[in-house]
Protein backbone atom coordinates (compact mmCIF):
# COMPACT_ATOMS: atom_id res chain seq x y z
CA UNK A 1 0.00 0.00 0.00
CA UNK A 2 1.47 3.33 -1.04
CA UNK A 3 1.78 6.23 1.36
CA UNK A 4 2.34 4.34 4.63
CA UNK A 5 5.50 5.34 6.47
CA UNK A 6 6.92 4.28 9.85
CA UNK A 7 9.83 6.26 11.31
CA UNK A 8 11.82 5.23 14.35
CA UNK A 9 15.12 4.47 16.00
CA UNK A 10 14.25 1.16 17.62
CA UNK A 11 14.15 -2.21 15.92
CA UNK A 12 10.56 -2.71 17.05
CA UNK A 13 9.30 -0.32 14.37
CA UNK A 14 10.57 -2.66 11.65
CA UNK A 15 7.64 -5.03 12.24
CA UNK A 16 5.40 -2.49 10.47
CA UNK A 17 7.14 -3.49 7.26
CA UNK A 18 5.01 -6.64 7.33
CA UNK A 19 1.89 -4.43 7.26
CA UNK A 20 3.02 -2.60 4.15
CA UNK A 21 4.71 0.40 5.75
CA UNK A 22 7.90 1.86 4.36
CA UNK A 23 10.15 1.76 7.42
CA UNK A 24 12.72 4.52 7.85
CA UNK A 25 15.29 3.81 10.53
CA UNK A 26 16.82 6.96 12.02
CA UNK A 27 20.23 7.12 13.71
CA UNK A 28 20.35 8.32 17.33
CA UNK A 29 21.77 11.68 16.25
CA UNK A 30 19.54 13.34 13.68
CA UNK A 31 21.43 15.49 11.17
CA UNK A 32 19.81 18.43 9.39
CA UNK A 33 19.92 16.61 6.06
CA UNK A 34 18.28 13.50 7.52
CA UNK A 35 15.66 15.67 9.28
CA UNK A 36 14.86 17.39 5.97
CA UNK A 37 14.56 14.00 4.21
CA UNK A 38 12.24 12.66 6.91
CA UNK A 39 10.09 15.80 6.88
CA UNK A 40 9.76 15.55 3.10
CA UNK A 41 8.79 11.89 3.32
CA UNK A 42 6.15 12.66 5.95
CA UNK A 43 4.61 15.35 3.75
CA UNK A 44 4.34 12.97 0.78
CA UNK A 45 2.80 10.14 2.80
CA UNK A 46 -0.83 9.49 3.67
CA UNK A 47 -0.22 7.91 7.07
CA UNK A 48 2.95 8.24 9.16
CA UNK A 49 3.74 6.48 12.41
CA UNK A 50 6.63 8.22 14.13
CA UNK A 51 8.42 7.63 17.42
CA UNK A 52 8.06 10.45 19.91
CA UNK A 53 11.74 11.38 20.17
CA UNK A 54 11.95 11.96 16.44
CA UNK A 55 8.66 13.85 16.43
CA UNK A 56 9.98 16.18 19.16
CA UNK A 57 13.00 17.01 16.99
CA UNK A 58 10.82 17.76 13.94
CA UNK A 59 7.75 19.18 15.68
CA UNK A 60 8.17 22.91 14.95
CA UNK A 61 9.02 22.47 11.28
CA UNK A 62 6.26 19.90 10.81
CA UNK A 63 3.59 22.15 12.35
CA UNK A 64 4.42 24.96 9.93
CA UNK A 65 4.55 22.72 6.88
CA UNK A 66 1.45 20.70 7.74
CA UNK A 67 -0.54 23.91 8.26
CA UNK A 68 0.22 24.84 4.64
CA UNK A 69 -0.53 21.39 3.25
CA UNK A 70 -3.76 20.95 1.31
CA UNK A 71 -4.08 17.26 2.30
CA UNK A 72 -1.89 16.69 5.35
CA UNK A 73 -1.08 13.11 6.30
CA UNK A 74 -2.38 11.37 9.39
CA UNK A 75 0.49 11.61 11.86
CA UNK A 76 0.51 9.05 14.69
CA UNK A 77 3.06 9.67 17.43
CA UNK A 78 4.00 6.59 19.44
CA UNK A 79 6.21 6.39 22.52
CA UNK A 80 9.69 5.00 22.11
CA UNK A 81 9.92 1.46 23.49
CA UNK A 82 12.72 2.51 25.83
CA UNK A 83 10.63 5.19 27.52
CA UNK A 84 7.25 3.45 27.70
CA UNK A 85 5.39 6.69 28.37
CA UNK A 86 4.62 9.81 26.39
CA UNK A 87 4.32 13.53 27.03
CA UNK A 88 1.45 13.79 24.52
CA UNK A 89 -1.28 13.44 27.19
CA UNK A 90 0.16 16.36 29.11
CA UNK A 91 0.38 18.37 25.89
CA UNK A 92 -3.28 17.58 25.13
CA UNK A 93 -4.28 18.52 28.70
CA UNK A 94 -2.54 21.89 28.34
CA UNK A 95 -4.21 22.58 24.97
CA UNK A 96 -7.69 21.79 26.36
CA UNK A 97 -7.08 23.91 29.46
CA UNK A 98 -5.98 26.81 27.27
CA UNK A 99 -9.02 26.37 25.00
CA UNK A 100 -11.57 26.49 27.83
CA UNK A 101 -9.71 29.27 29.65
CA UNK A 102 -9.18 27.54 32.99
CA UNK A 103 -6.60 25.17 34.40
CA UNK A 104 -8.37 21.80 34.53
CA UNK A 105 -7.69 19.27 37.27
CA UNK A 106 -5.82 16.22 36.08
CA UNK A 107 -5.23 13.03 37.99
CA UNK A 108 -2.25 11.04 36.86
Q: Describe it for me?
A:
This protein is α/β, with parallel strands linked by helices and 108 residues long. It has a single domain (4-81), classed as Rossmann fold, CATH 3.40.50. The chain has three helices and four strands. It has a four-stranded parallel sheet with strand order 2-1-3-4. The longest helix has 17 residues, at 52-68. The radius of gyration is 15 Å and the shape is globular.
Question: What is the secondary structure topology, with strand pairs?
Answer:
Blueprint: E1 4-8, E2 22-25, H1 32-43, E3 47-51, H2 52-68, E4 74-78, H3 88-100
Parallel strand pairs: 1-2, 1-3, 3-4
Q: How would you summarize what this structure contains?
A:
The chain is an alpha/beta fold and 108 residues long.
In whole angstroms, the N-to-C terminal distance is 39 Å
* Secondary-structure element string: EEHEHEH
Apparent shape: globular
CATH fold descriptor: Rossmann fold
Oligomer: single chain
Q: How many E strands?
A: 4
Fraction in beta strands: 15-25%
- What's the helix count? 3
Structural class: alpha/beta
Give the radius of gyration.
15 Å
Output the strand order for the largest sheet.
2-1-3-4
Amino acid sequence: MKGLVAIGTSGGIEILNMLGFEVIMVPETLTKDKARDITGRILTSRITIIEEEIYKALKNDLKQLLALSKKPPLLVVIPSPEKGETYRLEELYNMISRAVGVQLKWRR
